[in-house]
Amino acid sequence: MEFVRVVRDSPSDDVVQIVEIYVNTGEEVRENAVIADVEGSKSVFPLVTGESGILHWYVGVGEPVAVGAVVSVVLERGSRVPDRPTATLAKPGATEDGPAIAGRFSAKALERVNQAGLSAEFFLPEHAFVTLEDVEKELDPPDQSGPSPKPLLPTRIAFLGGGKGAQVLREISSAGATSYVVGVFDDSSNSIESFGVPLLGTLGDRDIVREFEKNLFDKVAITITGDMRIRRRLLDLCDTFGIPLHSFLDTAAFLSGSAEIGDGTVAVSGSRVGTSATLARNVFLSAYVNIDHHCVIGENTTFGPGVYLSGGVKVGADCVFGTNIGVEPGIEIGDRSVISSGTVVTKNIPAGTVVKNQSATQNRIIEQ
Length: 368
Hints:
Elements: E1 2-5, E2 15-21, E3 28-29, E4 34-39, E5 44-48, E6 53-57, E7 64-66, E8 70-75, E9 94-95, E10 98-99, H1 101-104, H2 107-115, H3 132-139, E11 155-160, H4 164-173, E12 179-185, E13 199-201, H5 205-213, E14 219-222, H6 228-241, E15 248-249, E16 254-255, E17 260-261, E18 266-267, E19 272-273, E20 278-279, E21 284-285, E22 290-291, E23 296-297, E24 302-303, E25 307-309, E26 314-315, E27 320-321, E28 325-327, E29 332-333, E30 338-339, E31 344-345, E32 354-357, E33 363-367
Parallel strand pairs: 11-12, 11-14, 12-13, 15-18, 16-19, 17-20, 18-21, 19-22, 20-23, 21-24, 22-25, 23-26, 24-27, 25-28, 26-29, 27-30, 28-31, 30-32
Antiparallel strand pairs: 1-8, 2-4, 2-7, 3-6, 4-5, 6-8, 9-10, 32-33
């Protein structure tokens, strides 16, 4: 059995009233459930039970109630309703029910103390009235041992490739302030020069490593998606010289909280990564790519728009997917495979193959 008392939410309140009841007399209530809203002079706050059982109200909506007074009781089913206790805990001090805990804490402060697993009876005994702010300061006191930490600077990104992929990634990066593009490496073009992003050098190893060692940038993003040989060479270059990869994840992409996303991943608007999926490094997801639950994607693999992988699909490294492709559940696709646009993959694909589809239901391997 539990008597439910009205706690103090403001030090100036001695009387409050119940403005709305959510669980009526005779109804079952769960542990830690909100059973009513209580209005004081400065706020409306919830009234919460500590036990589960059958609820009985002693007061009604709009009736003035002294702070610390019993307003309801939670009983075992079939138990007799006891008389309402007359003693309140409105002021600090003790009654036959124990220390005046309810009167010394605001409702939110008492809830926070209970969440922390602490004894309210012995918490901040020097305070006549404890607010939520007092509790938070006690649980997590500010560090005054030294100067405030310096603000984090945005990450400086260099693009490896200045074509259309660079335009896509620049647009994603412009939506936030945590990173910015300092320049582009490309052998022939810089499609984002008009946005004030300069050409830093060629895609040759020497140019990239030289500027990295000069501390011109912090991380790189590989924007090339059409030539897997160049894409693989650049990834290996980053590994050799310890150049970190930066991920670009559009805010309009859905990434499950249980998914694992490797460094250098690009997920553009409309793409989706499902529950417990795993993406290795440097994976590129175009618009409306669906990587369903428990899929595993190897590093350096690229997906064109509208690719749908069903659950449990395994894709190797350095694979290329065209557009409008469907892959059945549990399929395995080997390293360096190319899946052409419009294909429906219904069986496992060996490594190093190019797959096209002659019909809606049958794959044809045309090269290996």
